Amino acid sequence: MPNQHALLSTDERGRSVLRFERVLSHSRERVWRALTERGELQGWHPTPFEMEPRVGGAIRYAPMEGVQDVLPTGRVLAYEPPELLAYTWAEDELRWSLQGHERGCLLMLEHSFEDRMKAARDGAGWHLCLIALQSGLDGAPAPKRGHGESLPDGWEELNGQYQERFGILPEHATPPPPR
Predict the structure, then answer these.
(1) Which residues make Cβ contacts (< 8 Å) with residue 121, sequence separation at least 6?
(2) What is the pTM of this model?
(3) Are the CB atoms for 83 and 101 separated by under 8 Å?
(4) Which superfamily, per CATH, for 7-166?
(5) What is the Cα–Cα distance from 129 to 64, expressed in whole angstroms?
(6) pLDDT tens-digit series, residues 34-84
């Protein structure tokens, strides 16, 4: 079974890369819809979007909950249904790949970015987003947010765990987006 926590590495361009793997008990086609359809994205993605489904197509993001600024229009970098989707997310890149698996499919997320100090913050965020994705696919309610907070329950604890795993001192870590 894949590790539930993200792994952090550096790519050939010197960018940090968070990598997640999840075995999902659903077909690649079903998971592909969850990765690409606006109505599905709203249940788990921090910035649901509408996309022109082709390489070079535009990605138009909805605002993040509690954040006034909208991400700039992104660009589709790879589009191979139902196996590979990659796109820009502000200055970052997200790469989603789906492989067949005896229990459904193996989802892999690679998030590449410049600022290594945001690895814990984003690792905790994607960790919880992937839990929400799996819950939605399984027909369960999405995890709830903390009482009166804009961050999901468990984010602060996971953020601390990722800071420790990645050797990021809390005083140097990138904080969550302003709410």
Answers:
(1) 159, 162, 173, 174, 175, 176
(2) 0.91
(3) no
(4) START domain (3.30.530.20)
(5) 13
(6) 999 999 999 999 899 999 999 999 999 987 666 667 789 999 999 999 999
